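FYI - complex with manganese (II) ion, inputs then prediction.
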Amino acid sequence: MLEQALQAARDQREQSQADLFELIRIPSVSALSEHDADCRRAAEWIAGRLTRAGMEVKLVDVPGEGSRHPVIAAEWTGAGPQAPTLAIYGHYDVQPPDPLEEWLSPPFEPSVRDGFVYARGSDDNKGQIACGIRAAELALAHGGPPVNLRFLIEGEEEVGGPSLPEFVKREAARLHTDYLLIADGQFTAPGLPNLLTGLRGLLYTEVEATGAAADLHSGIYGGVAPNPLNTLAHVISALKDRDGRITVPGFYDAVRKPEERELADWQRLPVTEDDQMQAMGVPALEGEAEFSPLERRWARPTLDVHGILGGFQGQGQKTVIPARAKAKISMRLVPDQDPDAIFDAFAEYVDSLSTPGVRVTARRLSSGRAVRTGTDHPGVEAAARAFESAYGGRPVLVREGGSIPVTVDFQEALRPHLLVTGFGLPGDALHSPNEKYSLDQYFRGIEMVLHLMENLRDAPRA
Ligand code: BES
Ligand code: MN
C-alpha cells in the first residue's frame, strides 16, 4: 500500500487542499450556540468522508448533561485480528474568530498567502485531522493499511465538553486501541517535529461579583455604594504577585518538578527567548524568573484572565455603578495538581478577598488534569521514522503547555500507547486572529501518517 499511497498523496495535493478548504469553510465554533448547526455539519462532513473511504462510521450524540456536539467514531478492521489498531484523534470544533476586525481575510474563507492557508481552525485542528483523514482515504484506496484503523473525533475540545470523554469511558470495551495518534500540537521549531511527553491541564472558571440590586447613579450613591467591578479588579490583582507567583493558598503544594533529564533536554533546544518574544510579538517575557521560559510554559501552572464583563461598554460616558461584574479566569495545571482541590481553594480564596457589600462567587466551567504520556513504547520509534521520512527530521521529546482534556480519559479507559504530536508550526496563531497553517506541513503530514501506518505493521499490541 505504502508506495502507491504516497505517490497518490503527491499526485493529489490539489484534492487534499480542496478537502481541507471545504472543512474550513464550515464555521464550527463550539462555544457559540448560534453555530450548533455548523458543528453538526462539520461532523457530518467528516463522517461522510470516512464512510466514503470504506470505514464503518457512527455519528453519536452522547447523552448527558452538557453534551452538545456529536462524536464521530469510525473503524476499519480489514488488517485482521492479529494486526495492531491505530486510532486517530482530532477535533472539528474551533475557537470563536473574534476580534473580527483584525483578520486580513475572512476567518472562514481560506485564503492562501506565502504557502500558508489563513483561516480559523486551519491549524487547530482541521488541518491536522485532515492529515489523518486523507491518509486513511489514500491507504484504503491502495490496498489498505497494514494496521486496523479507528477515528475518534470530537466537537467540544475547545470548550472542555463532556461528550467524547463520556463516550470513551462508556464504550471502552468496544474501542480497543493499541496506538493513539493525537495530532493537535505544533513543531518545536521549523524542521523540528516533536513527540509530547506531557500536556498541561486546565481549570476554567467564571467569577461573579454582585453588589446592589440594580445599577446605581454614581453621583447619588458613589462613596457608599459597593462597586462589584472595582472589587473584581481588586480580587484579580490579588491573585498573582508581580513576580508571577499565584497567591491561592496551597496552589503549588502538589506541583511536581520536571525530571533533571527533561530540563537538560529543554535547555539544548534551538528555541531562544527572542524566538518566543517574536512568535508573540512582545518586547519582554513575563513570569517566574527562577524558571526558564520553556519550563514556565510546559511545567509550571499559570493563572490568566480571559475577559471581564460588566458595567457600561458603550460609546461615550455613563455614570453608573454596576450591580454586577464577571471575569473569566483559568488556571493551567501541571502534574500532580488536582483540579477539584485547586477549585475549592480558589473559590474560597476569591470570596475571602471581597469587600463589604459585594459577594464574589466562583463557578467552574470545565476542568481537566495534566497528562504525562509515556514515551518508552515501540510506537515512538515508528513515529520518529515516519517524521524522518516525511519531513527529514527526527522528533524531540518535549512537553507542551496547551491542553487536550480527553487525553487523560483515553489513557485511563483504553490504555493505548500514546503518540501526541502536531503538524503545525510555531507562529500559526492558534486562537488568535489570522490563524494559519502551512500547506507544505499539511501535505507532509499526510505522508507522515501513511508512513506511521506502515511502520506499525509488526508493532506489538498495547
Ligand atoms: N490544540 C490545542 C492544544 C495545544 C496547543 C496542544 C498547542 C499542544 C500545543 C487545543 O485545541 C486547545 O487549544 N485546547 C484548549 C482546551 C481547553 C479549552 C479545555 C486549550 O488548551 O486552551
Ligand atoms: Mn486543538
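The chain has two domains: 2-199+370-455, 201-263+298-368. The chain is about 35% helix and 20% strand.
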